[in-house]
């Protein structure tokens, strides 16, 4: 009778061999192992590369927004210089009003810059969380597929019948104890 671990550990199990063992032929096993590892790397690497491109695109968009904000800041600074020039001309009559306008302009610029920086940070954080969740989901799906494939490949008719019989036997003894 076969050892029950032979059915669960499908490593090196060959029906014609009749027992459990390892293949020590390095020339036969290394290409198989390398192809499996390369296949897994290529499969998961594509998704990571695509996600990386999306993140880089988001960062580039954020940088463009930042450049736009810098341009707005430069325009605002030019307007500020213009206002300061006018302030010198009208210092006697409207110095306090011009100062108030200057402060309002600076405050609105800083508020706009803070909003743009917050938007950029939120966009980056959101994209990172979305990518992390997608990676987690894919890894979980692959793990479940692998586990299901391992179970399906290791579960033969004889083992299945023994497992069902053992469970029925345990259920029968539990039923007798309860009665």
Automatic annotation (TrEMBL):
It is a single-pass membrane protein. The chain crosses the membrane at residues 32-49. Signal peptide: none annotated. Keywords: ATP synthesis, CF(0), Chloroplast, Coiled coil, Hydrogen ion transport, Ion transport, Membrane, Plastid, Transmembrane, Transmembrane helix, Transport. InterPro entries: ATP_synth_b/b'su_bac/chlpt. Belongs to the ATPase B chain family. F(1)F(0) ATP synthase produces ATP from ADP in the presence of a proton or sodium gradient. F-type ATPases consist of two structural domains, F(1) containing the extramembraneous catalytic core and F(0) containing the membrane proton channel, linked together by a central stalk and a peripheral stalk. During catalysis, ATP synthesis in the catalytic domain of F(1) is coupled via a rotary mechanism of the central stalk subunits to proton translocation. This is ATP synthase CF0 subunit I. It comes from Haymondia wallichii. The lineage of its organism: Eukaryota, Viridiplantae, Streptophyta, Embryophyta, Tracheophyta. The gene is atpF.
């Amino acid at each position: 009778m076969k050892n029950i671990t032979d059915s669960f550990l499908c490593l090196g199990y060959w029906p014609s061999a009749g027992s459990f063992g390892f293949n020590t032929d390095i020339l036969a096993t290394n290409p198989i192992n390398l192809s499996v590892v390369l296949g897994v790397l290529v499969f998961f690497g594509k998704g990571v590369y695509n996600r990386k491109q999306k993140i880089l695109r988001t960062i580039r968009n954020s940088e463009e927004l930042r450049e736009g904000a810098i341009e707005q800041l430069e325009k605002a600074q030019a307007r500020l210089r213009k206002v300061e020039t006018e302030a010198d001309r009208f210092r006697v009559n409207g110095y306090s009003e011009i100062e108030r306008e200057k402060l309002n302009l600076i405050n609105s610029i800083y508020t706009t810059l803070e909003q743009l920086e917050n938007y950029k940070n939120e966009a980056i954080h959101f994209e990172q969380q979305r990518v992390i969740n997608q990676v987690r989901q894919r890894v979980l799906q692959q793990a479940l597929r692998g586990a299901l494939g391992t179970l399906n490949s290791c579960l033969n008719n004889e083992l299945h019948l023994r497992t069902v019989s053992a469970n029925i036997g345990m259920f029968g003894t539990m039923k007798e104890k309860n009665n």
